[in-house]
Amino acid sequence: MAARRSPPQERERQRPRASAAGNDQVHSWTLVTSQALDTTWRVAKGSVTLAVSFLVGTLCYFRRLHLYLGHRLKRWIGYLQRRFKRNLSVEAEVDLLSHCAREWKGETPHAKLMRKAYEELFWRRHIKCVRQVRRDNYNTLRSVLFQIFSQGLSFPSWMKEKDIAKLPEKLLFSQGCNWIQQYSFGPEKYTGSNVFGKLRKCVELLKAQWTEFSGIKDYHKRGSMCNILFSDAILEYQLYEALKFIMLYQVTEAYEQMKTEKAIPSLFRLLFTRETSSDPLSFMMNHLNSVGDTCGLEQIDMFVLGYSLEVKIKVFRLFRFNSRDFEVCYPEESLREWPEVSLLTENDCHYHIPVF
Fold first, then answer.
1. Which of 127, 158, 174, 215 shows the greatest Cβ crowding within 10 Å of its Cβ?
2. Which residue has the higher pLDDT, 4 or 203?
3. Is 0.85 topped by the overall pTM?
4. What are phi and psi of 322, to 5 degrees?
C-alpha cells in the first residue's frame, strides 16, 4: 500500500492547476472586456462618424445658404442703390474743396485755374459745400426750381394775379396762338390737339407743388420733401415742361406788347433780334422744343427764365475766373426785392448748386 502524500505535497500539485484555471478565467474576462470595448468603440466610432458627417453636412449647407443669401442680398442692395442713385437728380451736399480735388487733379493750366476758382468760392465767397445736379438737358431748370422749392419762395407777383392753369387755353383762344399745337415735350416730342390738356396738367402740378412748398416754414421738412420730389422723374419732367411753357407765355406777352409799341424789358428786345427767335413761334420751335431733348438753356434763355420766375439767378462761371464774367446775374436788371438763387458752372453747359 502506497504511502499517503503529505498535505504540502498535495497543495503543491494542486497549485498549478488552480493557477491555470485562474489564468483561464482572467483571460476569459479580458477577452470579453476587450470584445465589449471593441464593440462599444465601433458603435461609438460609427455614431461619432455619423454625427461628424451630419455636422459637416449641416455646416456646408448653412455655408452655401449663407453664400446664396449674401449674394442675393448684395444684388438686392446694389439694385436699390443703383435705383435710388439713378433717381436722385440733386445729390446731397459734399465739401466744395473735396469735390474740386476729386474733379481737377491734373497740372494743366485749365485744372490749375479751376482749383483757384474753387478756392475763391470757398475762402472769399463762403461757399463751403456743393450739390451736384444731374447732367441732362433739364439741368438748368432743375437747379433753379430745386432752390425755389427748398427756400420756400413765394409765387411771382404776376402769377398771383392770374390762374396760370388757364394760360395754355388763353394763348389759343384770346391771342390766336394755334401754333402752340407744335409744342414739344422734350424727348417725348408730343404735338397735336391734346397739347393744351397736357400743358394744363403740367402747369397745375407746378402750381400745386409751388403752393405746398411755399407754405412750409420748416427748412428741414422742405429739404426732405425736395429729396422725394426730385427723385420722381415723371413729376420732375412735368414741372420742367411747365417752366418752359411759363417762359413761352412771357415771351408771347412781351411780343404782343412790342407790337403795340409798349415798353418791354431790354432782354426781350435782345431775344427778338436773334434770327432764331424773332417771334414766339420761332423761339418755341428753334429753342424751347429742344430743351430737355437735345440741349439745355442758353444764356439768353436764362434771362427769360429769371424774369418769368422773378428770381435773380447768380451764376459763378468757374472757367472765367479772374475775368469780369466770373460772376453774372440773370437778369441783370432784376428788381431788388426779387429773391436770389445761385449756381456754379465749369463750362456754361451744366450747373451745380453752391451751398453757403
1. 127
2. 203
3. no
4. 70, 25
